[in-house]
Amino acid sequence: MIVTTTFDVPERRTVRLLGICRGTTVRTRHFGHGLIAMFRSFVGGEIHELTKVIAEAREQAYDRMLEDARAMGANAILGMRYSSAEVMRNAAEIVVYGTAAILEGEDPTEK
Questions:
Q1: In sequence order, which residues have a C-beta less than 8 Å from that of residue 34 and are 6 or more positions away?
Q2: Could you tell me which residues come within 8 angstroms of residue 17 by beta carbon, excluding any fewer than 6 positions away?
Q3: Strand ordering across the sheet containing 2-3
Q4: How far apart are CA 80 and CA 65, in angstroms?
Q5: What is the pLDDT of residues 34-74, one digit of tens each?
Q6: CATH fold of 2-110, please?
Q7: Is pLDDT above 70 for 27?
Q8: Which residues, 6 or more positions from 104, have their beta carbon under 8 angstroms from its beta carbon?
Q9: Which end of the chain is more exposed for a tag (fewer CB within 10 A), N or C?
Q10: CA 26 to CA 86: how far, in whole Å?
Q11: Taking the CA of residue 21 as centre, how many other CA atoms within 13 Å lie in the half-sphere pointing to its CB?
Q12: Span 17-33, mean pLDDT?
């Protein structure tokens, strides 16, 4: 599956646009991570525990978007974007979305 933030792929022709595909997840902060984050905020620097949680959430949302696109029959996702929002105290929603498409030609990433 080709996934790109652009709306065209060099040397490939878009045959059909299938619609929006998306993946989403909502994650809460673990109490222990919250305490570590609070202490780290006093001294500054990256909060590695929360960075890991957000990276895992992004990956899960991305995988769900791929599943959605495959279910639509796509071989590409164009214009992919990430978005996030706080949905309640200590809980964030991560959304990844794009346009599911069918591209003509051989997928160079599958060689």
A1: 90
A2: 78, 99, 100, 101
A3: 2-3, 76-88, 91-104, 13-28
A4: 10
A5: 555 555 566 666 777 778 888 899 999 999 999 999 999 99
A6: Translation Initiation Factor IF3 (3.30.110)
A7: yes
A8: 12, 13, 14, 15
A9: C
A10: 9
A11: 28
A12: 82
pLDDT band of residue 89 (cuts 50, 70, 90) is confident
The structure tokens listed for 74 are 């796509």
Q: Is the pTM of this model over 0.70?
A: yes
Please tell me whether residue 71 adopts helix, strand or coil conformation: helix
The DSSP annotation for 29-70 comes to --HHHHHHHHHHHHH-S--HHHHHHHHHHHHHHHHHHHHHHH
Output the pLDDT for position 35.
55
For residue 50 the two structure tokens come to: 């929360």
How many Å is the maximal CA-CA distance in the chain?
A: 54
**Exposed e or buried b per residue across 31-60, where buried means at least 16 C-beta atoms within 10 angstroms of its C-beta:** eebeebeeeeeeeeeebebbeebeeebbeb
